[in-house]
Design a protein that fits this description.
Blueprint lengths: L2 E5 L2 E4 L4 E8 L6 E8 L6 E8 L6 E4 L7 E6 L4 E6 L8 E8 L16 E2 L3 E6 L1
């Protein structure tokens, strides 16, 4: 059974950076389709970034507009770990961040709704102060 465990959250000042990690256990599906979502208080869960690969060698990433140029999603197949590097953080980035993975072999690259993902981590809190 796939298990996802996030880490790396914390409290930072605006303009700072954090690296989130998601250890993916037993996730051997192909294609690889993974994502980071976030949920702020009183808001819906939104997709932040997705990553896609047919061979676990070449990866393709997509981002929601509000984080383009600031966040980078990546996957280390040797470590079975998904990352999200967040730079130039803003107070509006404050949220619980969740790692997700899709077991569907027909998944495609690009942002997708949360219903497309089968596996979820427990979430890690990111707080950005002004």
């Amino acid at each position: 059974q796939v298990q996802l465990v996030e880490s790396g959250g914390g409290s930072v000042q605006a303009g700072g950076l954090l690296r989130l990690s998601c250890a993916a256990s037993s996730y051997t599906a192909s294609p690889l389709c993974m994502a980071w979502f976030r949920q702020a208080p009183e808001n819906e869960r939104e997709g932040v970034a997705t990553i896609y690969s047919t061979d676990r060698r070449v990866y393709y990433a997509d981002y929601t507009d509000s984080v383009k140029g600031r966040f980078t999603i990546s996957y280390d197949n040797d470590k079975n770990t998904l990352y999200l590097i967040m730079t130039r953080l803003k107070p509006e980035d404050t949220a619980i961040y969740y790692c997700a993975a899709d077991r569907n072999r027909r998944c495609a690259r690009g942002l997708a709704p949360e219903s497309e993902y089968n596996y979820w981590g427990q979430g890690t809190q990111v707080t950005v102060s002004s």
